[in-house]
Amino acid sequence: MPDAAALTALDAFVAKLPKAELHLHIEGSLEPELMFQLAQRNGIDLPFESVEALRAAYDFSNLQDFLDIYYQGANVLRTEDDFYDLGMAYFRRAIDNGVRHAEIFFDPQTHTDRGIPYAFVIDGLWRAVQDAQKLGLSVLLIHSFLRHLSEEAAFDSLKMAEPYLDRLVGVGLDSSEVGHPPSKFARVFAKAREKGLKLCAHAGEEGPPEYIYEALDILHIDRIDHGNRSLEDPALVARIVKAGRTLTVCPLSNHKLCVVKDLDLHPIPAMLKAGLKATINSDDPAYFGGYVNDNYLALTRRGLIGREDVLTLARNSINGAFLDDARKAALLAEIDAYAG
Ligand code: HPA
Ligand code: ZN
User: Fold this and answer.
1) How many whole angstroms separate alpha carbon 133 and alpha carbon 117?
2) Phi and psi for 225 in degrees, rounded to 5?
3) How far apart are CA 60 and CA 53, in angstroms?
4) Most CB atoms within 10 A, among 52, 69, 280, 331?
């Protein structure tokens, strides 16, 4: 374990290090304080007495436990302004965390299935994206499909996105993984690809390595979200390394959802050692106890990663982004200048 002075120096280094965040569900950045404010603004009764009581309910033993409360929380989001406020609250936190570029998932079906028009969601988020840009943060939006729903429902959702394709960089696949393999969405992903969208899928968070093979071979994804369980299969790790696919890993999420038993055993060091292009991300920061820097610090403070690893992870976050080469080069140069 590094000594206290070295740790303090590393904390400070992480704090302002330029980085990208590539795995963030905007609905998962809804802090309890904002949830209560929006509930009041929209005349909604929350089934919790206070912010503290709500936070106390964030005790999960698996992904589904979390999803149940996360979908319930999203119910306060009703108007275009709500989505704007949600976006801006995250973008300000991201900027405070040294994030220079963010690629954020949003779950349209969670809203449109409650009767909220797709336009409210995308217009509110888009206005926030443009305001973030004025603060120096670039943002790209990823329309995520809920995998517990049908492929037909995903097609319907993609159709709603049609008038707004110029505001989207890609599509994703999230929600309850086990029992809903990537192959269920083969045709809708092919269609998204035809429309020029990048493809991501959550795979190997709770689901088996087979789901990661399917994401690669059937969906032809550009990036793997989580991917933890790839480590159970050395041939799969070799495949991912050879294909050069980035993994968006989320340490605090993994711990809160019991994907890893103990943060001391987090697989980021093993991933880097294997040559995987791992990145560090916050997933659902309002629910998992921290933004992106907290996720780096969860590993530095345990002595799992040092300064060079931190730099590798930050560079991986830029290289794994869906940005053009010029913006990537500029951000990598910022990291080099910062590293000195
Ligand atoms: N996994 C699956 N679905 C999700 C997640 C996650 O970590 N966060 C929000 N939706
Ligand atoms: Zn996620």
Assistant:
1) 25
2) -90, 125
3) 15
4) 280
Q: Whole-angstrom Cα distance, residue 243 to residue 246?
A: 9
Each residue's pLDDT tens digit, 70-107: 999 999 999 999 999 999 999 999 999 999 999 999 99
The first and second tokens of residue 52, run together, are 């503290």
Protein residue with least CA distance to atom 4, ligand 1: 175
List the catalytic residues: 205
pLDDT tens digits, 266-282? 999 999 999 999 999 99
Surrounding residues of ion ligand 2, Cβ less than 5 A:
283
Q: Kindly identify the ligand whose nearest atom is closest to the C-alpha of 73.
A: 1
CA-250 nearest atom, ligand 1: 7
Integer Cα distance of 303 and 155 in angstroms: 45
For the chain, which domains are there?
4-339 (3.20.20.140)
pTM, rounded to two decimals = 0.98
**CA 113 to ligand 1 center in whole angstroms:** 18
Burial of 166 (0-12, 13-18, 19+ CB in 10 A): exposed
